[in-house]
Amino acid sequence: MPCVLPDGSVAPVAKKILSTALQEKSEEEISKLTGIPIYRVRSSIRELLDAGLIEEKGGKYLTTEKGKEKI
Amino acid sequence: MEEEKTRMPLLGEKAPDFEAKTTHGTLRLGDFKGSWLVLFSHPGDFTPVCTTEFMAFAEKFDEFQKRNTHLLGLSVDSQSSHLAWVKNIEEKSGIKIPFPVIADGSREVAMKYGMLHPGQSKTETVRAVFIIDPESVIRLILYYPPAIGRNIDEILRCIDALQTADKHHVATPANWRKGDKVVVPAPIDQESLEERLKEGYECMDWYLCKKEVED
User: Residue B206: what pLDDT?
Assistant: First the structure.
């Protein structure tokens, strides 16, 4: 159940995270705002970082231009 | 090397790290840091006792959440099997399984946690329960054989006891339940022994004293 699918689209959980991180947010803030459990936020962010859809800025996360196209 | 790899983890040790495919994506132990975790294995999907356990865990899911505790299941079945099984449970019982389940086909996680007991089954995991604290330390281990379903209330009771013991630096007596009196640690010297006798604790004798604590 990857959050970035083989065809390049993203799973609903990833879309929620990308939408929430349009402004810089910490993992905990994303979890609180979306209702997605913290463990799943952390796991999804790893995948989104690898795919270049989100970037880290001092412990917070921001959706990239590439990530915005997936929302 | 092989012996080290298969040694059962012990209480007080750091829980073995892992990265595993689950029904909620690829998860690592570190993803649960900061919360309590109940990591539990079951022998197989689409089997009767395991199905009753999954339904019972799901029914108590809110109680685990209230205790800042996540649930993480495991068996050697595939991810597709897990997904089909949890969907089937929901269709047949109306109970949604809200926690992730590890698909440990390689048995890598099961081996690290001593969940395979050849005397019971050479291929399937037994009913193991690991309660892991927010610092990833193993705090309590339970093993049940395949034929005996677990008591979910007992797992919740254990979490309550561990959290109460940590918070108040006390111990919990036999059959303790949240709200009951707790055991005051034994005195370490004569002065503390004499001090405790003035505290107004409920004592059977100097070495067994109880007191009330707030939640």
Answer: 85
pLDDT score at B6: 63
CATH code where residue A49 lies = 1.10.10.10
Positions in chain B short of pLDDT 50:
1-4
**ipTM of this predicted structure:** 0.90
Residue B116 confidence (pLDDT): 95
What does the pLDDT read at residue B211? 94
Q: Give A32-37 contacts, CB < 8 A, sequence gap 24+.
A: A37/B24, A37/B70
Is residue B11 included in any domain, yes or no?
Answer: yes
Q: B27 and chain A: CB distance < 8 Å anywhere?
A: yes
| Best of A32, A39, A46 to mutate (most B CBs within 10 Å, chain B) | A39
Tell me what pLDDT residue A1 has: 59
Inter-chain CB proximity B23 and A3 less than 8 Å: no
Residue B50 is a catalytic residue? yes
- Name the residue range of residue B120's domain: 2-150
Size of interface A-B (CB pairs under 8 A): 41
Cβ separation of B24 and A42 shorter than 8 Å? Answer: no
* CA separation, residue A2 to residues A43, A62, B15, B23, B181 (Å): 9, 20, 25, 10, 47
Are B32 and B128 part of one and the same domain?
yes
In a domain, A6, yes or no: no
CATH number of residue B181's parent domain = 3.30.1020.10
| CA–centroid distance for A59 within its chain | 14
Min Cα distance B44 → chain A (Å) is 20
Q: What is the pLDDT of residue B184?
A: 94
Closest CB from B24, B30, B32 relative to A1: B24
Which one-letter amino acid corresponds to residue A36? I
Q: What is the dihedral of CA B115, B120, B126, B131, to 10 degrees?
A: -60
